[in-house]
Amino acid sequence: MFRDIEGLRSYVEIDNEEKQSLLSWKRPIVLLRKKKTLSSPLLAETISSGLNILGVMLPYLPFHYLLFRHLKSPAIVMTSGNFSSEPILMNNIDAIDQFSSCVDAIVLHNRDIYNRTDDSVIRVIGAKERIFRRSRGYVPAPIRTSLNTEGVMAFGAELTNCFSVGKKQNVYLSQHIGDLQRYETTWFYEQTIIQFIKLFRIKPSLIAVDMHPDYVSTKTGLAYVDLPVVRVQHHHAHIASCMAENMLDEKVIGVALDGTGYGMDGNIWGSEFLICDLNDFTRISHFDYIPLPGGDSATEEPWRIAISYLYKIYGKRFLELDLPFLKNIEIEKIRLIIQMIDNRINCPLTSGAGRLFDCVASLIDLVQTATFQAEGPMRLESIVDPECTNSYTFTAGDTICFDETLKSIVQDIINGIEKVTIATKFHNTIILAIFDTVNTIRLNSGINKVVLSGGVFQNKYLSEKTMDLLLKNNFEVYSHSSVPANDGGLALGQLAVASKRRELLCV
Fold this sequence. Notes:
With about 500 residues, the chain is an alpha/beta fold. The chain folds into three domains: about 5-130, Translation Initiation Factor IF3; about 135-250 and about 480-505, Nucleotidyltransferase, domain 5; about 290-480, Nucleotidyltransferase, domain 5 (2-Layer Sandwich). The protein is about 35% helix and about 15% strand. It is built from 16 helices and 17 strands. It has helices spanning about 5-10, 15-25, 60-70, 90-100, 185-200, 215-225, 235-245, 300-315, 325, 330-340, 355-365, 375-380, 405-415, 420-445, 460-470, 490-505, and strands spanning about 30-35, 55, 120-125, 130-135, 145, 150-155, 165, 170-175, 205-210, 230, 250-260, 270-275, 280-285, 290, 350, 450-455, 475-480. The strands form four sheets. Strands 5-8-7-6-9-10 form a six-stranded mixed β-sheet, sandwiched between helices. A five-stranded mixed β-sheet has the order 13-12-11-16-17, sandwiched between helices. Helix 15 (about 460-470) links the parallel strand 16 (about 450-455) and strand 17 (about 475-480). Helix 7 crosses helix 16 and helix 11 (about 355-365) crosses helix 12.
């Protein structure tokens, strides 16, 4: 948190759109690019985990302004009043009980907190504000749609959860809830649902949930009340979310790129090229499947994903490759991964685009053990050189295969090519793969409207370059702004699909 705009200019680059977001009454956290000039004041690298962006905000409470009166520093490091993966604490007794052992002082208030909210997070992409985390300042402002949403409730996803409720043609998304993998967050989720129903006087008549049978959100929706249920495929919901936000109700080409989502074939999807409307979808293409050793735990150790790709391409000969990252992994661990893949033990198939980014981040030795969600993809984006226009080759068809891409990356590593160059060429390859696939779909279908969704499109370089390339080739391109492209916007899509299907049944 900086004292004022003048104080932050020495540390970060800021354009007019970013300045407007910082100064708005909503006061979100804005992700800004750090300055690299020798004259710039130094910031501890750990503040931004070594990335090239910094989350910046300005004071918004009277207490913040009072605090800066007594500080000489232009900025202070702020964090939410919670422990990792748990909701923000909301009463004085709990704060004293849980924080006393790890802080020097606790500032209390004589007014109770009724509805806890995190700070909202935005980033300007393509000269437009994009919400990454929708919470304080943005909630409960409604999303206006072209649908009758009355009485529909959508329960969202498992990670970065938000739920939504419908009233007339409006959709009210909850504040950021978080990952539904701990009791405390699940309790917060259930209590907030009750609050929203009361606050907006909702009379539930239809439930929308994700297709994944084991999601806490799905189970909560199914157990909530005895009402009709619509199960919505994860990536269809992503595209429907962007469609609803942009008031689209027709067939579009949908590109949903993220890390994980339950697929119609029982595999893990995450790189989906669809022809869809709000009612249904057809899967046209996707990235090649790859075994994911250890399931979700592989996202915490990206080297496992790199091993899976290398084994697919080279067989056991990959052990002979002169790759630095392999030298730091115990050979027994590598052999165990190979055995898991060979025997299909806890190795679900995934087409997740995020896993391909994890693989490349591991191959060039950026991340082997992730300390936060999507660390590999974020570090890859962080070192991209916008001046580099080169790319690798890939194979397109019913599926999109990046074996040749990865072979070239391996060769570049062996030849001592800089990580920055490899990361940029990889990004450019994904951009070309998106464009080529979408262009082929347009030629075959005649559809010209393209909808982009999924957490991968929070990557500023990839998103801007993809949109520019599509627009230059006369596509009509739609993307997120008012709701997150990540799973935080999924409940809007679920609600839109459920509303549309109800409408069609009533015709």
